[in-house]
Design a protein that fits this description.
Elements (H helix, E strand, L loop, with lengths): L2 H44 L7 H9 L4 H4 L1 H7 L8 H18 L3 H18 L4 H12 L7 H16 L9 H49 L3 H21 L9 H29 L20 H12 L1 H30 L16
Helix pairs in contact: 1-2, 1-6, 1-9, 2-6, 6-9, 7-8, 7-9, 9-11, 10-11, 10-12, 11-12, 11-13, 12-13
Length: 363
């Protein structure tokens, strides 16, 4: 392997380390800290003097700690005995867990903590009475857009019937309204939790694709395509940079936009390599005529300036590769049909002209 190939593989390894670090610092830790702050806020307002509940479990899950190892104050509140493990073992276990967290984080702890906290909030809302219950129902009424259309219509009618019959801030049947409030909040929170679970799953899928793409790039670099891949990666970064500059309002997406940002240079590099190979294939099929750009003797491991420019173009625009793929599919699909027609024509017997009847000489 040449020096440039070693440098390319080192860059790929460094990119993976930067990705893991960035993912931990700008996705995992902010989500975890926000979750813990939200749990503290809920416990302060909902359970200031209450016994241990699901919020304590949510805090231990979100912080990544184990109740029997790292939460002596919680053990004391629950009347549990101190752990029997030696201090050295507990410190070592805590160190190994924190060292491995950036590599194995997938957002599941935060999602479970939010689910537990939502259950506590729904149960607390069901204990409200009088104007506080009406205000909570009005607040929930303003958040019905989180529900699917069918459920949104149903709950809008239910809340309208409840609030319409509450003159002077009094509900007709308060226990029924409390049960409705609990069920409605469970529906709302389930819809939100499902949304963020899907976002976290998609974010993990994109991270897996980045890892797979980097492994493929390392294999291609070992084959000598480092210049071509670098040009494609530059195109991918330029494409993502333009989109980020044009973006205005970005909702909370549980780190999905960061993961797509990680994927852009990897996707651009692979698109450049695949696009130029596809151009060569289409040229051999006589679909395109690019002999001035890609002569028959062109070597992709030693690309010219024009080839690098095309690689950057493939990295910037995914549509070019999509169009070439469709064009190749059409060409491959039409060639067998043409071959069948020519074979059928060759198998037909040759047509002979009908022999003219011999003339009979008149006597």
């Amino acid at each position: 392997m040449t020096t440039s190939q070693y440098v390319g593989i080192a860059i790929i390894a460094g990119y993976w380390v930067v990705l893991i670090t960035t993912r931990w610092m700008f996705i995992a830790r902010p989500n975890r800290r926000f979750t813990l702050a939200r749990i503290d806020d809920a416990q302060y307002f909902l359970e200031p003097e209450a016994p241990p509940s699901l919020l304590d479990e949510a805090r231990s899950i979100a912080s990544g700690t184990h109740v029997y190892d790292d939460l002596p104050w919680l053990r004391e509140r629950r009347g549990l005995d101190p752990p029997d493990d030696p201090e050295v073992e507990r410190v070592l276990r805590r160190f190994l867990r924190r060292a491995s967290d950036p590599f194995i984080w997938n957002g599941s702890r935060d999602l479970v903590a939010w689910n537990l906290m939502h259950r506590v909030e729904a149960d607390h809302a069901a204990t409200l009475t009088g104007p506080a219950l009406i205000a909570a129902m009005m607040k929930a009424q303003s958040q019905l857009e989180d529900l699917p259309p069918g459920k949104r219509t149903y709950w809008a009618r239910v809340l309208h019937d409840q609030l319409d019959g509450a003159p002077g801030g009094r509900l007709r049947d308060e226990p029924v309204a409390q049960a409705i409030m609990r069920n409605l909040l469970n529906e709302l929170y389930n819809a939100r939790d499902t949304k963020f679970t899907n976002l976290a799953t998609q974010q993990n899928k994109v991270t897996w694709l980045v890892f797979t793409g980097l492994a493929i790039l390392a294999a291609l670099v070992s084959q000598g395509y480092e210049d071509l891949l670098l040009a494609g990666a530059v195109g991918g970064i330029l494409s993502r940079l333009q989109r980020e500059l044009q973006r205005r309002d970005v909702p909370s997406d549980y780190g999905l936009s960061w993961s797509v940002l990680f994927l852009s240079p990897v996707s651009g590099a692979l698109s450049a390599w695949a696009g130029l190979l596809l151009l060569q294939t289409l040229q051999k099929f006589n679909v395109l005529e690019l002999s001035s750009l890609l002569p028959d003797s062109a070597d992709l491991t030693a690309p010219t300036g024009a080839m690098l420019g095309v690689a950057i173009l493939f990295g910037i625009s995914e549509r070019i590769l999509d169009r070439l793929v469709r064009q190749a599919e059409d060409e491959i699909a039409t060639q067998p049909a043409a071959a069948k027609k020519s074979a059928a024509a060759a198998q037909e017997p040759p047509s002979h002209p009908t022999a003219a009847a011999p003339e009979v000489a008149a006597p």
